[in-house]
Specification:
The chain is 20% helix and 22% strand. By secondary structure, the chain is of the alpha/beta class. The strands form two sheets. It has a five-stranded mixed sheet with strand order 4-3-2-1-10, with no helix packed on it. A five-stranded mixed sheet has the order 5-6-7-8-9.
Length: 206
Amino acid sequence: MMSTHLSATAMDILNTQLPPDTIALWWLGQAGFVLRSAHTTVYLDPFLSDHPARLIPPLFRAEEAPPAVYDFGFVEHDDRPLYRYLGYVVEMAGVRVYSAGDTIVFDGLVERLRRLEADIALLPINGRSYFREQLDVVGNLDEREAADLAAAAGMKLLVPTHYEMFAANQGRPGVLVDYVRAYHPTLTCYIPAHGRRFTYMKGDLS
């Protein structure tokens, strides 16, 4: 049952009204997002559980989450063990969003993403190292690889993820912005704020 005292983010998700050609996105932390169109709400990997290592608390509890049509999970959180490596392309209001979850570049990924013609890339930037992988911390793209992948795949907008929730698993969004400016000036990079809505309309960055 949904609480009668919702957080500001949950209220914003619940009450936002959108034109038919626009989507709204809210970052929940890590790879978690809420996507909303005029008629549909989708959750991407919402990690809403408390955890002693979290640096940022959940924006709302699971029981406060506004209703959604779909809830896509990526990885083995304590509250939802599923596949370890899994990404999605979600189309809403004519906008295609590629949410990678945990990933690195592999042969054929760029070509596959080009065929899918996604507009927005939600990509991890926390990188990987031998020592972290020995601790079973999943490795990901780093800042430069995320920018190179988004540009090579023809994405319009890159949104970094997976860099701020755990002290042992950080990324550097400032490095990403500097690299994009230097090497991919036609790629737009947006650094999201936790729980703050941003909107995108098909053709915004054409």
